Amino acid sequence: MQTMTLDGIIERIKSANGVSDFKITECVEHSYQLFFVHGKLETVRCCESEETQISVYVDHDGKRGNASFSLSGNMSEEALDKKLKQAIDNALMIFDEPYSLPSDETSDVCIESNLSSLEPKEAAARAAKAVLEANVYDDCDINALEVFVTKHILHIVNSRGVDKRQTKHSLSLEAIPTCNGESESVELFETYTLAELDEEWIKKEISARIEDVRARLVAKKPTQKIDCPVILNAYELKELFETLVADCNFATHYSNTNLFNVGDAMQSAPKGDRLNISMKPLVKGSPASSNFDGDGCGLVGRQIVKDGKVAAGFGSFRFAQYLGEIPTGVLPCIDVGAGETEIKDMLAKPHLELVYLSGLQVDLLSDYIGGEIRLAYYFDGERRVPVTGVAMSGKLSEALNTLTLSKERAVLGDYSGPAKISLEGMNIF
Question: Is the pTM of this model over 0.90?
Answer without folding.
Answer: yes
